[in-house]
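Q: Hi! First time doing this. I have a protein sequence and I read that you can turn it into a structure. Is that right? Here it is:
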Amino acid sequence: MCLPSDHSAATLRNLGLLFNTGRLAGTGYLSILSVDQGVEHSGGASFAPNPDYFDPEKIVQLAIEGGCNAVASTAGVLRAVARRYAHRIPFILKVNHNELLTYPNVYDQVLFSSVERAFEMGVVGIGATIYFGSQESHRQIVEIGTLFQRAHELGMFTVLWCYLRNPEFKRDKDYHAAADLTGQANHLGVTLQADIVKQKQPECNGGYPAIDFGKTHKSIYGNLVPDHPIEWTRYQVANCYMGRTGLINSGGASKGEDDLAQAVRTAVINKRAGGTGLISGRKAFQKPMKVGVELLNAIQDVYLCPEVTIA
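A: Yes, that's right. Below is the predicted 3D structure, encoded as structure tokens:
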């Protein structure tokens, strides 16, 4: 995974720790538990389905029992358990969030913590979200670019949630998950020196022509990117410097009984497209821990399965 770069020895060590923890250790793939939904979606909406996870320790225990490479969460969650668990599983501190208590609701990622605080807690990497396409994106780009540079100086790696956010991206379908638009978000993310990009798995293509803005090329809707979920995801990988920066897709919201099947499908598409793994959240922690562990293990089994290969 660690291709030639200008990373310091400390950053390479922390990336090595990430890729050599959990059931996927040494495979080059990642399974990360991410729980910041208490801020992003409200504590009630996130944890009422399973109130155990109001307790930060339960979040970290799920990541460990589930064989994850790392746990990503808020400053509040990680500081509550850092002295007991920071040496047992890699911590990724999510430094910015969108909170939903403001009325009317606004959608803006604002800083909740700092790189220095992450370093003090023994965190190995920092994570952040940018809402590309939003009115606030230029400020977020400057903020996160500066934070990522500082994180690398302190020996931490960086993970960027490269999300789209603009009401105009919803037309005949929701182009927030279009391959062409998410691919460009990824390209901006790796330009900001993200070591890992988190992105929603594409559900369609053709965002640029549907919205009629920006610049694109006809081959993205034809021979270069055929109309198939694996090819759409492969285009996301291509925009991560041809996989030099790892692409991890998100598992999405919990929708009930087919959560496990949907998670496995997402993992298969990611792996066959040349991706690096999955970040899981609500599908895992909105269930009893035993069921959450089984779901995480099922995702990991895809990456451990030699019969599932790059298409």
